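assembly run, all chains below
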Amino acid sequence: MIVEPIVFLVVATCFVFFTLFSLFRIGLGPTVADRVVGLDTLNTMVVATMIVLGAAFDQVIFVDVAIIYALLSFVGTLYVARYLERGL
Amino acid sequence: MPIFVYVVFGIGVLFNGLGAVALIRFPDVYTRLHGATKCTTFGSIFTAVGVIVYGFVKGGAEYNTLAIHTIVALIAILVTNPTGSHAIARAAHRSGIKPKGAVVDRLEERP
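ok done. output:
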């Protein structure tokens, strides 16, 4: 069936389009916390996009990269939050 | 591909879009965090469930590997995303950002 990769690619394109919204929030957020919220949303969107792309191209390595990206972005978010809270 | 996968992908795209709109439209940090983090976590869970069902239905060693690795990614999303949003909210409160239109702060630490 040819329709399955097209569905996956349409879903991934929608996720990339939603990523642009969080890029707007990172660019023009008034405070630093707004930018961190935008970055957190962007990380989640990228993880979802990579899972869908791994299913679209039948590549398991994309999903592995998504796992590592989720864990590393979690560590990054925690460090930025700690820095906002009391400095390094 | 069963019809269930299409439905689950529809739910995932809908909730991720709602999260993105919430990130643009809401007035201050806490409401943005509420909308964006909850909706994107829910939508990503449903997207991953769709890929898992797709892998197990398709069968074969390669697709089963895809489904099992996606389960691990789903667990990673489930553990890390709410924890990160909680850390951001606490840091925003402690760095002195007030909600829009707030008059009294009942969470304020007393000396």
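Chain A has one domain: 3-86.

The helical segments of chain A are 3-28, 32-57, 60-86.

not gonna interpret more than that til we talk
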